[in-house]
Each structure stands twice: as structure tokens, then as C-alpha cells.
Amino acid sequence: QTPILPYDEIGAEKLSELVDAFYSNVAQHPKLKPIFPDDLTETARKQKQFLTQYLGGPNLYTEEHGHPMMKMRHNAFPITPERKDAWLACMSDAMDKTGLEGKFRHDLYRRLVLTANHMVNQQSHEE
Ligand code: HEM
């Protein structure tokens, strides 16, 4: 039996839907909105590239932007535990809206929790 990559399991189209649903949540979230650009088109495009390779698909992010170094790229933004929880809530809701379920959803979410925890770079923020 050929092992299936998470990327093949979700497919490019569903992944794109997930990312669009996610950033539409981010754009409306009071704790996240202030640290993101107003226009999330480019952010969503990069996130699609990143998640493609995160899930075992082609290295689209690295081909265009170099090594992800996600922790370092996030240092420019104040990421508190509160904002990390908000990010994950936006992702969980986006997973609901795109109909991800079962083991696939559970495993992806669990991985994202670990990655999100890693991005926290300060303990509190104003507002
Ligand atoms: C970029 C916030 C977690 C992947 C960004 C940006 C912000 C941000 C403000 C900049 C957007 C822009 O200028 O276009 C956060 C917060 C997180 C979080 C508050 C909470 C923990 C994550 C996680 C991942 C991720 C868990 C990956 C699974 C990315 C990617 C970019 C990005 C791929 C684009 C990087 C680039 O400019 O090349 N994030 N992020 N982020 N984030 Fe996050």
C-alpha cells in the first residue's frame, strides 16, 4: 500500500479553500486584525505555498521565498498566547467551514497547535 501524503489527501483545491476561510476569519478577529495587513491576498498566497510543503507537497514556499524560518519571520509581530489561541480558533472554524473531519483534521490541527505554540514570542500585549 502506497502511503498517502497529507497534501494528496486534502488536495490543492480544498487547501486553498481552507486558507481563504482562515484569513476571512483573521480579518474579522479583533485580536488578530491589528497585526495583519489590510489586504490579505499576498499573505494567503504565501500561506497556501507554505502549507503545501508543510503537508508534504511540492516546496512552493521555499522555491519562491527561501527557507521558511517561520519563527524568525514571525519575530516582527507581537505574538502572545492570546493571539496564538485566536489564530488556532480561526483555523478550527475554517476547518469546520471547509468540512475537514476525522483523523486528517485531528492530526493537522494537532501539528498546527505545536507550530503555533512555537511562534509565541511575548507574554502580553496592549488592548
Ligand atoms: C505571516 C501572525 C502562526 C504561517 C504572518 C504575519 C502575521 C502572522 C502577522 C504577517 C502577514 C503579512 O505581512 O503578510 C501569526 C500569528 C500566529 C501565527 C499571530 C499565532 C500563533 C502561524 C503558523 C503558521 C504561520 C502556526 C504555519 C503553520 C505563516 C506564513 C506567513 C505568515 C507562511 C507568511 C510569511 C511570509 O511573509 O513569507 N503570520 N502567525 N503562522 N504566517 Fe503566521
TrEMBL record:
Keywords: Heme, Iron, Metal-binding, Transport
GO molecular-function terms, A-Z: heme binding; metal ion binding; oxygen binding; oxygen carrier activity
Pfam families: Bac_globin
Stored PROSITE patterns: GLOBIN_FAM_2
InterPro entries associated with the record: GlbO/GLB3-like (IPR044203), Globin-like_sf (IPR009050), Globin/Proto (IPR012292), Globin_bac-like_CS (IPR019795), Hemoglobin_trunc (IPR001486)
Keyword Transport attributed: yes
Cofactor: heme
Similarity comment text for this entry: Belongs to the truncated hemoglobin family. Group II subfamily.
PANTHER family registered for this protein in UniProt: TWO-ON-TWO HEMOGLOBIN-3 (PTHR47366)
Protein known as: Hemoglobin
UniProt source species: Psychrobacillus insolitus
Organismal lineage: Bacteria, Bacillati, Bacillota, Bacilli, Bacillales
